[in-house]
Write a structure and sequence with these properties.
Layout (H helix, E strand, L loop, with lengths): L2 E2 L4 E2 L8 E2 L15 H11 L3 H14 L5 H15 L3 H14 L4 H14 L2 H20 L8 H14 L1 H16 L4 H14 L4 H16 L3 H14 L4 H14 L3 H17 L8 H25 L3 H15 L3 H17 L3 H12 L6 H20 L2
Antiparallel strand pairs: 1-2, 2-3
Helix pairs in contact: 1-2, 2-3, 3-4, 3-5, 4-5, 5-6, 5-8, 6-8, 6-9, 8-9, 9-10, 10-11, 11-12, 12-13, 12-14, 13-14, 14-15, 14-16, 15-16, 16-17, 17-18
Length: 386
C-alpha cells in the first residue's frame, strides 16, 4: 500500500480505483491501484538502500517524462534529497514541483524544512511565503462544480485542520529564525514580514510587538512607531504595544493624552489578562507585576511632564514595588520619583528616591548619585550660614 504524502493520493487495498486524500491541499494525481505506476512507486517506497532507491526514482522519471506523473517524479526526488540532506537539490526539485503544482502545500512544508535544516533564512522565508500564498488561495476558492457552499465550507475546514501541525511548524520555523538574528533591524524586518504573511495567526501580534521592540533597540524610532501603531490598529488590546507606546510618548513628552489613555488601558488589562497554560503561576505574577508597574511608571512620567507632581508621586510610588525585580525600570522609576519630590520641595522623599535609584546597577546609578551629591552640596552652605 502506498500513501503519497505530498500529492494526496490514497491507495485503497482491495479496490482498483483510487480517491484523492481529502486532507491535502494541492493537485491530486490519480494512480490506479495495481497499475505499473503503482508498482513502481511501491518499489521506490520499499527500497532501503539509498543508491538503489535513487536508481528506481531515476528509472521512474525516465519512464514518465511528461504530464502529471512528473509531479510524482519531483515529489520522489524532493523526499529523497531531503532525507539525504542534500538541500540544494531539494530546492531544485521543489521549484520544479511548484512549477507543475503551484498549490502543493506539502512541498512548501518540505522546502521550509530543507531551508530550516540548512540554516538559510532567505530561503526559509521564501518557502514560508509560498505556504502562505497557498493557504490564502485555498481559503478563497469557490466551491467546485457540483459541490454546495455548505459542503465546500466543511471540506475546506477539514483540510485546513489537517495541515494545522505543518502550518504550526512553518510559523515556528520563521519566528525562530527571526528571533535568532543578532542585528536588531534585520530581526524586526523579518518579524514584520512574518506578521504580514500570517496575519490571522496568534503569533502575528507577538511578532509585531517584538518587531517594535527590536526597532527601538536599533534606535529607529520612526519604524518603531510605525510598527507599533500598525499592531495596535489590528489589536487595540495588545498590552505590550500599549505599554511600549505609553512609555515612549511619556519619555519624549509627546502625545501625552494618548500616552495616558494607553497606560491606563494597559493597567486595566493587567487585571483581566488570562494566564497561558504554559506559564507557571509565579512567572505569570512576575510578568503582570512588571507590566502593571510600567503602566503606573508611565502615568507618573506623564504627570511629571504635565507638572502634576502629587499625582506623579502617587503613580510612581505604586509602580516602585511592582518594578523592583527589574533593576533598570525600577531605577528609572525611582529617579523620576526623586524629581517629583523635588518639585514638591520634599527633600527627604527626593533623597530616598535617588538613593533607591543609585542602589542598583543601571544607567540611572550615576545620574542618581550626582543628584544626591548636588543635594548635599546645596544643603551644606545653608547650614554654614545659619
Amino acid at each position: 500500500m502506498v500513501r503519497l504524502r505530498i500529492l494526496g493520493v490514497l491507495f485503497l487495498a482491495g479496490f482498483f480505483a483510487v480517491v484523492p486524500l481529502r486532507a491535502q491541499i494541492g493537485k491530486s494525481v490519480i494512480v490506479a491501484a495495481g497499475s505499473d505506476v503503482d508498482h513502481q512507486l511501491n518499489d521506490i517506497s520499499a527500497a532501503t538502500d539509498p543508491a538503489a532507491k535513487l536508481k528506481l526514482i531515476d528509472a521512474f522519471s525516465a519512464a514518465h517524462p511528461d504530464g502529471d506523473l512528473q509531479i510524482l517524479v519531483n515529489e520522489q526526488y524532493v523526499n529523497y534529497y531531503l532525507g539525504a540532506k542534500q538541500y540544494d537539490k531539494v530546492f531544485d526539485y521543489g521549484d520544479k514541483l511548484f512549477a507543475l503544482d503551484p498549490d502543493n502545500f506539502s512541498n512548501a512544508v518540505n522546502m521550509v524544512r530543507a531551508a530550516n535544516e540548512k540554516g538559510d533564512t532567505e530561503r526559509l522565508f521564501a518557502a514560508g511565503e509560498k505556504a502562505s500564498g497557498i493557504l490564502q488561495r485555498f481559503k478563497a476558492q469557490p466551491p467546485p462544480s457540483g459541490t454546495s457552499p455548505e459542503t465546500w465550507k466543511v471540506d475546506q475546514q477539514q483540510k485546513l485542520e489537517s495541515v494545522k501541525d505543518n502550518r504550526d511548524y512553518i510559523e515556528q520555523s520563521l519566528m525562530s529564525a527571526a528571533f535568532q538574528q543578532k542585528d536588531a533591524t534585520k530581526k524586526a524586518a523579518l518579524l514584520v514580514r512574518f506578521a504580514n504573511l500570517f496575519p490571522d495567526s496568534p503569533n502575528a501580534q507577538q511578532a509585531y510587538g517584538a518587531a517594535a521592540v527590536a526597532y527601538q533597540q536599533a534606535q529607529n524610532r520612526p519604524k518603531m512607531l510605525e510598527t507599533a501603531n500598525s499592531a495596535l490598529e489590528k489589536d487595540p488590546d495588545n498590552l505590550s504595544i500599549l505599554l511600549l507606546l505609553a512609555d515612549d510618548y511619556s519619555e519624549k513628552n509627546e502625545q501625552l493624552d494618548k500616552a495616558e489613555a494607553y497606560a491606563k488601558k494597559a493597567a486595566s488589562l493587567c487585571d483581566t489578562a488570562k494566564k497561558p497554560e504554559s506559564v507557571s503561576d509565579a512567572d505569570w505574577q512576575k510578568q503582570i507585576n512588571l507590566q502593571k508597574g510600567l503602566a503606573f511608571s508611565a502615568l507618573g512620567q506623564i504627570d511629571l511632564q504635565k507638572k502634576l507632581n502629587p499625582a506623579a508621586v502617587e503613580s510612581l510610588s505604586k509602580a516602585a514595588p511592582l518594578l523592583k525585580a527589574n533593576a533598570v525600570v525600577y531605577a528609572r522609576n525611582q529617579y523620576r520619583l526623586g524629581f517629583a519630590y523635588l518639585n514638591l520641595k520634599n527633600t527627604a522623599g527626593a533623597r530616598q528616591a535617588f538613593t533607591d535609584a543609585a542602589s542598583v546597577d543601571s544607567p540611572y546609578k550615576g545620574p542618581a548619585q550626582d543628584k544626591l551629591k548636588a543635594m548635599a552640596a546645596t544643603k551644606a552652605p545653608a547650614k554654614k550660614g545659619s
